[in-house]
Design a protein that fits this description.
CATH architecture of the largest domain: 3-Layer(aba) Sandwich
Strand content: 15-25%
Shape: globular
CATH class of the largest domain: Alpha Beta
Largest sheet: 6 strands, parallel
Distance between the termini: 28 Å
Number of domains: 2
CATH superfamily of the largest domain: Nitrogenase molybdenum iron protein domain
CATH topology of the largest domain: Rossmann fold
Structural class: alpha/beta
Length: 336
Amino acid sequence: MFAMSRRRCAAFAVVLTLTLAGCGAKKSEPSDAKGDGGPVTIENCGRKVTFDKVPRRVVTNDVGITEIMFALGLEDRMAGYVMPDDKGDLDKVPWRAGYDKVPWLSKKAITREVVLDARADMVFAGWNYGFSEGDGITPDSLRKVGVDSYVLTESCRNGNEKARGIMPPLQALYTDLTNLGKLFGVEDRAAKLIADFKKRIAVVAARTPESAERPTVFLYDSGEDKPFTAGRFAAPEEIITKAGGTSITHDLADSWTTIGWETVVEKNPDVIVINDYAQPSAEAKRKFLLSYPPLAHVAAVKNRKIFVLDYVDLVESPRNPAAIEALAAYLRTAGG
């Protein structure tokens, strides 16, 4: 996800007329962002942040964050992006032109050297999706070398130790689109994206069953000793809910986190969604789930109701609406 605890990495299903890996979001138009006007003040992760001028050389961390910039048509405001090369076939995404235009700075973790070599004036990343005290890359450390930061709202620290997330996941996406629209002077484009996303999600929601009939769903990211999964502040929460399911980890006041297998067994999910990225592959994860003895009597395993979405579908990104559409279609055919 991000350079999460995952593997320092830091992508989205399609409209049903595209391939699942290709995602159904609309392509962005060329940027008409304003020049160096300022200052601009926005609220990011609960605090007011003032930019003296509009950033011209943004470095982004990971695929979802990078595609937020592309969706807003801000390629010409980017110095480059950092992400591992395990994010699927980028040739098929709606923002192929953005990937062609903007330099791929590093396939490893974002570093101060990468930022300074790119002559960045802003870094757009998240806590454990690029920003990390352990690695010495934080908004405070970057400020000391004259570089501004914007923190992905999905990753905001919420005051509960290092837990993350301060609002419902889709609201986090809309918040970031609105903030960046204001910062870069593309408010109309941001509003249009948000309106389109809400309209598509409303169409899906209108077809979902009542709460009592909803299948329960477990998001499986990785891990064999303990599963890494998503709490109610990570994108899968609303992807599952809007698609017509109920996440078994809804009560976790965190974004991405680890739980115990005993919780999965106790909650007995009807469906498991696999987060596909890097290694092990989605097929390897599926084989593990189907062969892991403690899960033998879990409904999703017994009935082999396992669905795969790409990593970028499941982190905050403009591919979230297409992921909702794809999962909703699966839940309808799977019959819960």
